[in-house]
Every structure is written in structure tokens, then in C-alpha cells.
Design brief:
Helix content is about 40%, strand content about 15%. The chain has helices spanning about 5-10, 35-45, 50-70, 90-110, 125-140, 155-170, 185-190, 235-245; strands spanning about 30-35, 75-80, 115-120, 145-155, 200-205, 220-225. It has a domain at about 30-155 and about 200-245: Undecaprenyl pyrophosphate synthetase (3-Layer(aba) Sandwich). It is an alpha/beta fold. It has a 6-stranded parallel β-sheet, sandwiched between helices. It is globular. Bound molecules: farnesyl diphosphate. The site of farnesyl diphosphate has 19 residues, from helix 2, helix 3, strand 2 and helix 4.
Length: about 260
């Protein structure tokens, strides 16, 4: 595991160093299941909220690293539909951290030309959180740099259900014929349109579960599991995950390119 001292030392790394010394292009879309905040805190005898707080700092590092490494889309799993099952105090801490993140970081994200998009169910959110998420999207909607997709109150199955309802409403309204519903139409009815499928999903903390994340969009994604807990995630971990992705032989159901 990466120690705190290493984490502190790394920001002095060259700002635009390539992920690896080959000409492989970076993945366009990286999606991250940020796991291990609680265990990071427990190992240090700290309350879980401290792990989440340090997790927000790791989010900032991930956004910077994504930009430096040439990634175009970064999706982070910030709060799942299932996270409501956690103790009320922890849910409240996570909501508070998201509010703080948007209030404190939005101007900086905007200045860095980051476009913020949100996926997930807005209906279940308090009006102040829903308002902040909308503000983040609206303020940054003309930015052309990294697109940061925040999955909040998000579940992959629930998103597919929302897409099915949108398509059914279009059919009922006479704007769409049932035979026009294909994979492209379903993709277009998901929460955020115009975002390519993730090339790679990274999960930290060594866990090997998908946890209802981007269920439709990850059909052909590579999964890379990193041992670090999320609060220790940094540019080096990001680059290591991209290196691992480059070692994979993506086939999309066809033959290996290496097969000639
Ligand atoms: C998993 O760790 C992490 C989460 C449930 C939420 C991730 C949230 C943050 C990084 C902070 C808020 C995010 C933003 C964008 C402001 P865990 O608690 O499940 O860890 P454990 O498995 O070790 O208990």
C-alpha cells in the first residue's frame, strides 16, 4: 500500500509525464469505484468520516491526474443508490462532503476547463443538493476540457429503468416506434447523453465487485483492481491502472489483434 509520506512526495512529479513510455493513447473514458475509505480510517483508528474527507482529496488528485494523463472523461462513483442503507450519520456526512466539494471546488474546476455532468436519480435528493448539482452542470456546460461525471444517488439498474421509462414515454407520445428501440436508442436514453462508454473501470481497495456501477455502459470495459484504499489514490496509482489497461488485449467479441 502507498504510504502517506509517498503520497505527499508525489505532487512534485512532472505535470505532463506520460502514463508510460509507449505511444499508446490514453483511454478516453476512465470510471472509478472509489472504495476503502472506511478501512483506511479504521486502520488509523480514525472515524469513517475522516476516510471520506481524505477521499475527497483523492478525488481532487484524480481530476488533476486525468487531465495530465490525457483522459477525456472521468466518472466517479460518489454515492450509490444502495448507500442510503448506511447509518444516518454517515449518509449525512457524505451529503455534507458533496455539498462542500461543489461549493469549494466548482470555481477551480470551471477555471481548469472541466465540464461537470451528473448521473443518478435527482428525485431522491434534497433540494439544496439537487440545486448544487444543477449549478455545477450549468456553470461548466461550455467547458471543453476533461468531463467529470459524478455518479450520485446512482445505480446502474435504476438508470436502465429510467431509460426504459423515457423510451416508453416517447413511444406513448408517438415520437418513437417500438421497432426503433435498439442499443443506440437505449444508450441515448441513459442519464447523460454523448458520453462514450468507459474503456476501463478502476476499483480501489482490492475488492472485485461491480456494485451496480454503469451496468449498461461497461459491457466491454476492462476492469482494473488496485490494492490501495481510495484515500491513498494518486497520480502514480492512476498511471499504474492505465499501464495495466494497455497490457490488456481488447477484443470486443472478435479476434485478438495480436492473433494477426
Ligand atoms: C467507499 O468507501 C466510498 C464511498 C461509499 C463514497 C465515496 C465518497 C467520497 C470519496 C467522498 C465524497 C465524494 C465527492 C465527489 C465529494 P467505503 O466507505 O465503502 O469504504 P470501506 O469499504 O472500507 O468501508
Amino acid at each position: 500500500m502507498i504510504s502517506d509520506s509517498q503520497t505527499v512526495a508525489r505532487p512534485s512529479a512532472p505535470p505532463v509525464a506520460p502514463a508510460r513510455l509507449t505511444s499508446s493513447p490514453p483511454p478516453a473514458h476512465v470510471a472509478i469505484i472509489m472504495d476503502g475509505n472506511g478501512r483506511w480510517a479504521a486502520r488509523r483508528g480514525l472515524p469513517r468520516v475522516e476516510g471520506h474527507r481524505r477521499g475527497v482529496e483523492a478525488v481532487r488528485r484524480a481530476v488533476r491526474a486525468a487531465t495530465e494523463l490525457g483522459v477525456r472523461y472521468l466518472t466517479i462513483y460518489a454515492f450509490s443508490s444502495e448507500n442510503w442503507r448506511r447509518p444516518a450519520a454517515e449518509v449525512s456526512d457524505l451529503m455534507g462532503l458533496l455539498k462542500l466539494f461543489v461549493r469549494r471546488d466548482l470555481a477551480e474546476l470551471d477555471a481548469a476547463n472541466v465540464r461537470v455532468r451528473i448521473i443518478g436519480d435527482r428525485q431522491g435528493l434534497s433540494s439544496d443538493i439537487a440545486g448544487l448539482l444543477t449549478e455545477a452542470e450549468e456553470r461548466t456546460c461550455r467547458n471543453t476540457g476533461l468531463t467529470l461525471v459524478i455518479a450520485f444517488n446512482y445505480g446502474g439498474r435504476q438508470e436502465i429503468v429510467r431509460a426504459a421509462r423515457r423510451l416508453a414515454e416517447a413511444v406513448a407520445a408517438g415520437r418513437l416506434r417500438p421497432e426503433e428501440i435498439d442499443a443506440e436508442a437505449v444508450t441515448g436514453a441513459l442519464d447523460a447523453t454523448g458520453i462514450p462508454d468507459p474503456d476501463v473501470v478502476i476499483r480501489t481497495s482490492g475488492e472485485q465487485r461491480l456494485s451496480n456501477f454503469l451496468t449498461w455502459q461497461t459491457a466491454y470495459a476492462e476492469y482494473v483492481v488496485l490494492p490501495e484504499f481510495w484515500p491513498d489514490f494518486d497520480r502514480a496509482a492512476f498511471a499504474a491502472a492505465i499501464d495495466e489497461y494497455h497490457r490488456r488485449d481488447r477484443r470486443f467479441g472478435g479476434l485478438s489483434e495480436k492473433a494477426g
